[in-house]
Amino acid sequence: MTPNMTAVAERPSLRGAVAKQGNRYRDYALVAVFATEVLFWTLQSPAFLTLNNLLNIARQASTIGIMAVGMTYVILIAGIDLSVGSLVSFTGMLIASTLIGIDSIIAALAVALGFGAVSGLFSGYLVSRLHVPAFIATLSLMQVYLAGAQLWNDGGPLSVTNSAVLMLGSGYIGPVPVPVVVFAVILLCGHWVLSQSVFGRHVYAIGGNPEAARLAGIPVRRVTLTVYALSGALAGLAALLFVGRLATASPLTGTGLELQVIAAVIVGGCSLFGGKGNLRDTLLGVLVLTMLQNGLTLVGVSGFWQNFATGVAVLLAVLLSGDVLAKMRKKEA
Amino acid sequence: MQELEQRPGGVTGPAPAVLAQGVTKRFGGVVALDNVTFSARAGEVTALVGDNGAGKSTLIRCLSGVHSPDEGGLFMNGAPVTFSGPNDARLAGIETVHQNLALADNLDVAANLFLGRELSGGPRSLFRLRKKPMEAKAAELIDEYGIRMPNIKAKVGAMSGGQRQGIAIARAVGWGSEVVLMDEPTAALGVKETGRVLEVVRSLADRGLAVVLISHNIEQVMQVSDFVWVLRGGHMIADLRAENTNTQEVVHYITTGVGLGA
Amino acid sequence: MNSMFQRRTTRLTFAGLTASLSVAVVACSATGPGGSSVKDTSDRQLVIGHSYQDLSSPYFADERKVEKALAAKNGYSYVATQASNNPATQLTDIENLISRKVNLLVIDAIDPNAVVPGIKSANSAGIPVVMLIRKPAGGDYRSLVYLDSIKDGATACSEVAKRLGGKGKVVNLTGPLDILAAKERSTGCTNELKKYPGIEIVASPQTDFTQRDAEQKMTDVLQVHHDVDAVFGGNDDIALGAIRAFTSAGIDPKTKVVIGIDGTQAGLQAVCNGTYTQSLATFPVKEAEIVMDTAAKIHTGKSVQKEVLFPAVPVNADNIKAAVKTAGYPITSCPAAK
């Protein structure tokens, strides 16, 4: 005789109905914001909707975007990686020095991805095994890399001339800048893993309820290490792209990048508490913020208003995201 | 290895589905369980009661593989078993419905039912999730247990307490387990839902599972259980046939350590 | 370990040792350098404390390197602090240097008002103060080695105007305007360019002083203004970013006028390559030399000039070779040198 639990689930859920509405609202809100912004800047500046400028935006969005893919994974497990900006600066110096010794893009790529991954593994180890809060662990690493990048060449930059690296950062495949192609590949792969693979499912589970994940036999520590390693490796890749773009490795290249990346992921609707978010939305977040910077410069309103606008965007995103709505619901319930 | 076993209370029968014998567990200087013996048989509801801090959770965690006993051993159907983690216990057929349900609120029903045991195409498909088979099986289980679910793709966090309880139980039972440990299954439910859950508990046992029920509510315990074991301060002080005792006596055991009368 | 301390005699001995050790440490520090009140300081070692605004910029980093080397050469003790452009942090740095008993304090003031309490503390402690970059709003100092950033901006942009023949489109890429030097350079430039009716400043984007940000902003500007003739960069890094943006947009930077300020090694290398028209160099080497020279004079009781203008030297293809030599940069290839 099969136990009948119909009656157990009887009471229709008012909470459920409101939650469903909330989620739908959130999904549409981001796309609406994106569309509105495109419309706004198109009206503000004739230079905005030109092919050249759109490709320009795409290229600028690519480096931040690549880092944002890694950051999305990290934030999904309720972690954070504040070291990515300084890591970009430091890895850039490493790349430039490597190229002086071995003038090969393969070597540069190996160093970029290798060092980034190792750094990420270290962060992940601090977080998952030593239980250092991610904020503290990655903040400390950020300081270390900042100093490291400056000490590397006595505060000075290093010049890069390798043509393949310059092609990677500044070149084109047809009309499309190479970094955009790289970003597209990373984004698609990242999205597939997150939405279609067992690993991706585990990432969401750990973010949603780490204890439940552990009890269910999910290798939480291993997933955490992998996620941080991914974030580091992608920061390393971004460093290579920056070096290729600027033909220079500077200790200042990564200044403020971690905040830009985190802002993009948050505007994309990822919850800092973990378990909620996806790469399609992260892409929209990256584009919304990149277009903001670009539009303001095109229109000639630059400077402090840029910081203001970015800050307001992040605040709005957090307010409109599920988190605040959920807390409000809980209060009423 | 004994097939037949002398049960306390003078009843013999086949080996229990799960048996903890002489189990001692220490945490630092604290002795959580001291030479505890406990068993549950297939087809019966065995309750484990006791005051806060008596060691109920620790015993359950030993049975479900979260902790390893420092002394003593575990047996299933007469054969000794050791668990190095919750996975081992699950593979051996022991499932747990945790007090907080251990559901991932941000995932849907199918994802929760298959949590940690996702169906995938293996390495060749880069561990791609086989979502359709998982969703089909989920629908099957939901149907089988008659949980009313208007939208099976909804996130579990948006569902009512009763639905979530149903999912947690379906997950524990749907994997073909032999032993189901239920930790305070009615704690968060209203009166009507509680009654229904107790019906489910009884019917699981009727299906042939060994159900271990932890609860603070002795009245409820007496409604559905066949046997009641009392833990007090890390010691198993009584194991009683439900039909030979009553709520008052069980409570007396819990609070004083002794029974009523001769 | 426990059993050892349980013995009463061991405890007493340990306490005694600690006490005598503490007394010795206190006694030594009290009579050490900086603890005496001797007026004629020339027979004491010179301990120089330099409070920097921020050491992440190549300019200050270079300066510090040279000062450290010069101090070592002359047998001085030298310590530098940096405040990450935060005026409150700079006050703390100054207090710490005073506690550390430096006998000469050099200050690169972030904010001329906020720095005054720090100068006054040094005054009370009897430590002579040398101010760099800009004049403070109060407090006593022996010498001020100042940059006139407004004049530098004007000089740079009058050169821009000259090379454009008084006609053309200019982009003013500034540094962060909450940093005074950046603001003053920008103001100096725009005021100068106002004199030329044929010159139009088509955009004035603000950057964070980094090459990455400057490259991005310049690329954005080029979307709107396709025919920019000249760029004024708030520092060398900004100018280099603009040059890179030109290159990526398919525009040969050698056909444009790009002028900036700083005179860093990367900047001078670009002048050598011909891509960078001119950098107004305030050589960190020169500033370091002036600082050390002033410090030595004060320490031996000689008189020093109250205010010294630190000149910004225009460096372009005409005088690049000499400039590289003065700066001491290890630049080997210089094709554009005339």
Automatic annotation (TrEMBL), chain B:
Name listed for the protein in its UniProt record: ABC transporter ATP-binding protein
Pfam families, sorted: ABC_tran
GO molecular function: ATP binding; ATP hydrolysis activity
Domain ABC transporter, chain residue ranges per copy: 18-258
Keywords carried by this UniProt record: ATP-binding, Nucleotide-binding
Origin superkingdom: Bacteria
InterPro entries given in the database record: AAA+_ATPase, ABC_carbohydrate_import_ATPase, ABC_transporter-like_ATP-bd, P-loop_NTPase
SUPFAM superfamilies associated with the record: P-loop containing nucleoside triphosphate hydrolases
Keyword DNA repair assigned: no
Keyword Nucleotide-binding included in the entry's annotation: yes
